[in-house]
Write a structure and sequence with these properties.
This protein is mainly beta. It has strands at residues 4-7, 10-13, 18-24, 30-36, 43-48, 55-57, 65-70, 75-80, 89-96, 110-111, 115-120. Strand 5 (43-48) and strand 6 (55-57) form a beta hairpin. The termini are far apart.
Length: 121
Amino acid sequence: QVQLVESGGGLVQTGDSLRLSCVASSSGYAMAWFRQAPQKAREFVAAISWGGGSTAYADSVKGRFTISRANAKNTVYLQMNNLKSDDTADYYCAAGPYSDAWTTPGNYGYWGQGTQVTVSS
């Protein structure tokens, strides 16, 4: 079992920045961020391999969001800049294997409880 705890969400205004953090109870996994807006399906945001050498981003966040990790702290980060109202959602951290399916929710067996991000215009 891997436990994931997210933090860093909040209420911000359009154009602001936030940094989300996710602390894992164990190591060795690819990590990803997904988000889910009210009445919408969970969608992929970003992923990073265990060593950090591979990353992936949803087109909607490329150039604005950056995923990174500090393995010594078992922590993955999501730096979100130039936030838009469309970024409003619950953000979830996930842990799983590095695979061809790593941008899909089904790739991940471990999930955090989520942290809420609200971007007000």
